[in-house]
Amino acid sequence: MPKKNAGNKKNKSNFAKLSIFQSNKYKFKKSCPLSIKGAPKIDYKNIKLLRKYVSENGKILPSRITNVSQKKQRELSLSIKRARNLALI
Amino acid sequence: MNLYEHTIIARQDASPADLKQLTEKYSKIVEKNDGEIVKTENWGLLNLSYLIKKNRKGSYIHFKIKGDGKMIEQLEKNESLDKKLIRHLTVKVKKFDLDTNYFSKKDENDKIEKKEKNKS
């Protein structure tokens, strides 16, 4: 997946700026935190989980920063938009 | 028979009696159009993250409905007329997870209150 490597190269450059969003251990772990067996379900009601993937002013974090797989990122953005519609986020 | 998760937000000044009346009204509409209410959740008064029609807070009611599209159409038509509701959202779902309730804050508050009573 060429996109993955490019993401990491860029990742290294603005490393300091972005580390506030995600603890360092996520940065080096290549696996997606949502596709592990015991991961919480992505749901528009589960605002505790959704808030982790939203920046302070409510924008959806790109998957190159949060290391989320493409499939989970699509589900995530859909549920975030639904939660926004219900004014939960 | 599709599965739907239907959420409505009532205005801030809707009293609990109004809320009960609202839930009954809409569950009657669902039953009339041969739908079936699997579960009803009252998430209580939550702060909205932005103003909807000048309301800062809204009381959420969540239905899990089994039925077909026409019933949802009827439901939404009535809801858009209703002055008390400020927003409604219907989501078609493959299957329900009935156990997890993310907004059951009330149980936690009760526990805390009980602890205080024991202490005092």
Tertiary shape of chain A: globular
What is Rg of chain B? 16 Å
Q: Give unreliable regions of chain B as ranges.
A: none
Total helices of chain B: the number is 3
Oligomer: heterodimer
How many strands appear in the DSSP assignment of chain B? 4
CATH superfamily of the domain at 31-89 in chain A: Ribosomal protein S18
Query: Share of helix among residues of chain B?
Result: 25-40%
Q: Label the structural class of chain B.
A: alpha+beta
- Give the integer mean of the pLDDT values of chain A: 78
* CATH fold-level assignment of the domain at 31-89 in chain A: 30s Ribosomal Protein S18
User: Which overall shape of chain B is indicated by the principal axes computed on the Cα atoms?
Assistant: globular
Write down the CATH class of the domain at 31-89 in chain A: Few Secondary Structures
Strand content of chain B: 35-45%
Can you summarize this structure?
The complex is a heterodimer of chains A (89) and B (120). Chain A is an all-alpha fold and 89 residues long.
Describe the protein in words:
The complex is a heterodimer of chains A (89) and B (120). Chain A has 89 residues and is an all-alpha fold. Helix content of chain A is 53%, strand content 0%. Chain A has a domain at 31-89: Irregular (30s Ribosomal Protein S18), CATH 4.10.640. Chain A has six helices and no strands. A four-stranded antiparallel β-sheet of chain B has the order 2-3-1-4, covered by helices on one side. The mean pLDDT of chain B is 85. The A-B interface holds A 41, 43-48, 58, 82, 84-89 and B 7, 9, 46, 48-50, 52, 58, 60, 62, 87, 89, 91, 97, 100, 102-103.
Give the topology, please.
The complex is a heterodimer of chains A (89) and B (120).
Chain A: H1 2-13, H2 15-18, H3 24-28, H4 47-52, H5 63-66, H6 70-85
Chain B: E1 2-10, H1 16-32, E2 36-52, E3 55-67, H2 69-81, E4 85-93, H3 105-119
Antiparallel strand pairs in B: 1-3, 1-4, 2-3
